[in-house]
C-alpha cells in the first residue's frame, strides 16, 4: 500500500460549496475510487491560501484519483467542480504532487 499527497486550489469564497458537494459525493464516484484501490482519502483546506491538501492510500498497482481522468464518472465530477476550483482545459483540477519528507507511525 502506498500513500500519496497532492495539492489543488479552491476559488476564494467556495469553502462551503466545496464541503457541501463532498458531503454528498456521488455513490458511483465513491465506488469507483474504492474499486480502483483508493482508500483513506482525506482532503484538508488551508483557509489562508485556499489550498486543498489531499492524502490517499493506494493498493498495489492502483492509480491515484487524479489518474482516473478517462473514466466518464470522473470527467462528470471534474465538470461539476470546475466552477469552484482551479482547473486545466479538460476540467481536471490543477494538481501538484507533494513530496513526503517525514513520517511517524
Commentary on this structure:
By secondary structure, this protein is of the alpha+beta class. It has a single domain, classed as Alpha-Beta Plaits (2-Layer Sandwich). Helices cover 27% and strands 26% of the residues. The protein is built from three helices and four strands. Strands 2-3-1-4 form a four-stranded antiparallel sheet. The model has no long low-confidence stretch (mean pLDDT 94).
Characteristic key phrases:
105 residues, 4 strands, 4-stranded antiparallel β-sheet, single chain, 3 helices, Alpha-Beta Plaits, alpha+beta, 26% strand
* Total individual domains: 1
Q: What is the first-to-last residue Cα distance?
A: 14 Å
Q: What is the CATH domain class?
A: Alpha Beta
**Main structural class:** alpha+beta
Helix content: 25-40%
Compute the number of strand runs: 4
Q: Mind telling me which CATH architecture this is?
A: 2-Layer Sandwich
The main sheet orders its strands as 2-3-1-4
**Contiguous uncertain segments of 5+ residues:** none
CATH topology: Alpha-Beta Plaits
- Tell me the strand percentage band: 25-35%
The pLDDT mean sits at: 94
Give the overall silhouette: globular
C-alpha Rg (nearest Å) = 14 Å
Order of helices and strands: EHHEEHE
Give a quick account of the main beta sheet: strands, pairing sense, barrel closure.
Answer: 4 strands, antiparallel
Could you write a compact summary of the structure shown?
One of its GO terms (cellular component) is cytoplasm. The protein has three helices and four strands.
Amino acid at each position: 500500500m502506498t500513500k500519496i499527497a497532492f495539492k489543488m486550489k479552491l476559488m476564494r469564497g467556495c469553502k462551503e460549496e466545496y464541503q457541501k458537494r463532498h458531503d454528498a459525493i456521488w455513490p458511483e464516484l465513491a465506488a469507483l475510487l474504492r474499486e480502483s484501490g483508493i482508500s483513506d482519502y482525506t482532503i484538508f483546506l488551508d483557509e489562508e491560501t485556499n489550498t486543498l491538501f489531499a492524502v490517499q492510500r493506494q493498493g498495489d498497482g492502483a492509480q491515484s484519483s487524479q489518474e482516473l481522468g478517462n473514466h466518464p464518472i470522473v470527467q462528470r465530477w471534474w465538470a461539476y467542480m470546475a466552477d469552484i476550483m482551479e482547473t486545466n482545459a479538460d476540467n481536471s483540477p490543477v494538481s501538484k504532487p507533494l513530496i513526503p519528507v517525514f513520517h511517524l507511525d
